[in-house]
Structure prediction request, 225 residues.
Amino acid sequence: MEYLIRRAPAKPELRGLWDGPAWRSADVAEIASFHPQSSADHRPATQVRMLHDDNGLHALFRVRDRYVVCTKTENQSLTCKDSCVEVYLQPFPNKGYLNFEMNCGGTLLLFYVIDATRSPAGIFRHKLIVPQSLIDMMRIGHSMPKTLPAEITEPALWSVEFFIPYGLIETYVGKLPAPEQRTWRGNFHKCADDSSRPHWASWSPIGEPLNFHRPEAFGTFLFES
Prediction:
């Protein structure tokens, strides 16, 4: 699997404008590989677009959903329990990856995972929790409220859009080369563990077991120069 992150023709406005001037030329990735444990009667259509500029990366997710849940309001809480989209980024094969896990209300879980081997003491054998001071460098937009009082059982279209500055990424992996010299690894995901119709989908198939944290299953991200 390959995804080309095109250069932004204009600065995205954090308004979820899927076909707006900044986004209409971006390639679309379909998050459509559902794990067999997913609910059989609800498999939301989820798409993502990414762009890059001189300052960082932009991501826009669009979800045609139902059974939407959103209860987590504190960053670094388990946003995957809610209706959630994710992008994992591994700029260098010999270093760790960053997992941006954002619920539909714009709340984020973000680690730098160095060793994704499962460990009872801390889920991963080796990870660093990204501090709020670095998360504050991001810009985030979302179409849903910050939290929902109850699950939305009717069809709903929602989006989240965010900007990741290179400074955040370079804090963990060091200086990044020019776009034309980059070959990153990563994946896109959609999940909702605590929905009445739980599901787990990815762009690049993860196989078995049910575990998004499998660098060997990552696809390739290329950058338009």
